[in-house]
Amino acid sequence: MRAGVLFSGGKDSTLAALLLDGFYDVTLVHAGFGVGEAADHARETADAIGFAFDDATLDDAVAEEAVERMAEDGFPRNGIQTVHEAALEAVAGAGYDAVADGTRRDDRVPTVSRARAQALEERHGVDYLSPLAGFGRGAVDRLVDEQLEVEEGPAVELAKGDYEAELRELVREHGGDELAAEVFPDHVQTRVTGRR
Amino acid sequence: MRAGVLFSGGKDSTLAALLLDGFYDVTLVHAGFGVGEAADHARETADAIGFAFDDATLDDAVAEEAVERMAEDGFPRNGIQTVHEAALEAVAGAGYDAVADGTRRDDRVPTVSRARAQALEERHGVDYLSPLAGFGRGAVDRLVDEQLEVEEGPAVELAKGDYEAELRELVREHGGDELAAEVFPDHVQTRVTGRR
Predict the structure, then answer these.
(1) Which structural domains are found in chain A, ordered by start?
(2) Which of B18, B97, B118 has its CB closest to that of A136?
């Protein structure tokens, strides 16, 4: 069975892929808007951990909706949720038997409710998998320590393939540096560089 | 890291163990009341699929509470939930780094809410893992077909190690054959006999 795993190059989506490996033929899929080099960074990480890679370009209308929402809110949560839902739809419609993501039990965003998962499955005839849904923050941290090599740095500098990198640039284009700094206050991010 | 996986010999707890294998040093733990041969059946299945095995005997007071509840309800759901919670407590207190079960995304019983999971983790200093929490019914069925050899039969005849086998006998002792048949109407059950 083929699984497309939504992939940012971060710890959670990497760990989700490792949990499915051996049960599914896993392809890591970067979904984004073609802004900057996010997809390239995700591809590099996929190569480093030895998985097949693909990318999916989401509709510009999704970016616009997310950016407007974040500019209005002043925080990223709802905009990121919008993008994640669009990314799931894109990968679910791309011919895989299953679409997966790295959402964890203790995550607040993005979230995929059981009802939304079942609707996605019925609409596209795929299975939706969230391999980390049954793992809390502590368990994920301990597994990452054992399984992965990670690099840490300020989010604005760390070259990564997550939604934030692209959305920060789109918000900057929309409302300038000040709005970008308001919506995405700088914080420490991590990026996977390999397997232990 | 050592994980104790609550184990009945059924498909879900077996699949949960397979998903954790390679990430944890897995021991399959049968929790029950020492009624009949439930623990022996679970041990046979654990041997057949190549995992370490242990058993935990739960307090008689738990059995009494569950049986009284089921006799009153006329259905097993709340009684099984009571036993599952006691089983999690027992394994969480047995020295493992993590305690796991086979609860699935689409299950109605037993369920472990995020709040209950976090409380269990804090109380015992362990991680609680539900590896199938991010897998729906269809995905679990497809993984079982690919990974496991299973045997099917009427629940009353199939020698298995789940809560139902023991609780049915305890309900029968409490209220006779009629009550046992009311609480546990016969249905088709499956038991894992090996890996593919």
Answers:
(1) 2-195 (3.40.50.620)
(2) B118
